Structures are given as structure tokens and as C-alpha cells.
Amino acid sequence: MESLISRLESLEVGMSRELRKIKLDETVPEIRIPPRELVRRLEKHPLVTQVATQPLELFRNGHFNEAVRKAAERFETTVQKKTGLQEIGKGLMSKVFSISNPLITLNSLTTENEKGIQDGYMFMTMGLMRGIRNIFSHGDENQRSPEECYEMLLFVNWLFRHLPA
Questions:
Q1: Both 69 and 122 in a single domain?
Q2: What is the rounded CA–CA span in Å between residue 39 and residue 45?
Q3: Does residue 139 have a pLDDT over 80?
Q4: Full domain range(s) for residue 2
Q5: How far out from the chain centre does Cα 27 lie?
Q6: Fewest 10 Å CB contacts: which of 29, 92, 117, 124?
Q7: What kind and span of H or E run contains 76?
């Protein structure tokens, strides 16, 4: 408020007395408008439907953590539907993408590189669940920057694109 009052006074707008009477509710979450360039880049990027719908809309409206949480939950739900499993989180991803008995394979798993891709994807999806989805699902995480959430959305989008149809 003081910053606003100072700026208005520099413009010779005398409202300091009225503005100081306003009591702001500190419990209301801060919503920031994302930089236009980030929104434009997301809109132009070939996003999968699961990211291009509600998560993108949440991001546009300044709900960065929620956008990422929603995209991660959609990834988890997609994996559950593809496998018929009701498990969740890290355990689901470790079971579904394991090299020893995978329920979803990204390739033929015949070469060391192919096995490495499968194994790496399993660890990335486990990390998505543990290090992103879980953290944002608890609701007490500080609002992340739009840039960081933009990158997380693109990461989830990348994971979606590598899921077999």
C-alpha cells in the first residue's frame, strides 16, 4: 500500500489518507499475472490436450502452482487409465515403467540405450509425482514463479508426448 501511495504522490494524486484507511486481507492468496511472452509461448507450443486445456487456463489466470498440479494429476490419471491400475504417485510410475516387468514400454527394450530410455523415463515420472505433484497438492507450497511453472508445464507436456498411444 505504501508503494502505491508513494507512486500516486509522485504523480500528484493526493489519496494517501483514503488509501491508508483500507485494510487489506493478508490471508487472500496473491495472484500474479504471468508475463505475456510466456503465455504466448505456451499457446504456440504444441501442447497435448491434457496441458492445453485447464492447466493452460490456470496458468493464464496466474494460478501457476495449480496449473502444474493439474497437469501432473492428468498425467497420473492417463497412466492409470492406460494400465487399469488404481495405484498412485511414485509407486504407480515405478511399477508401470520398470524395465523388469513394464506395463507401458516406450520402445522394444532390446538395446542398452532403449533400456536406459525406459529406466530414465520411469525415474522422471517418479520424480514428477514425488517432487512436483505431491508438493503442489498439499496446498502449503509458496507460489512459484511463472517462469519455473512454465518450465514444469513443458516437462509434463514432454512426458505426455512420449507416452505410447
A1: yes
A2: 10
A3: no
A4: 1-30
A5: 23
A6: 29
A7: helix 64-83
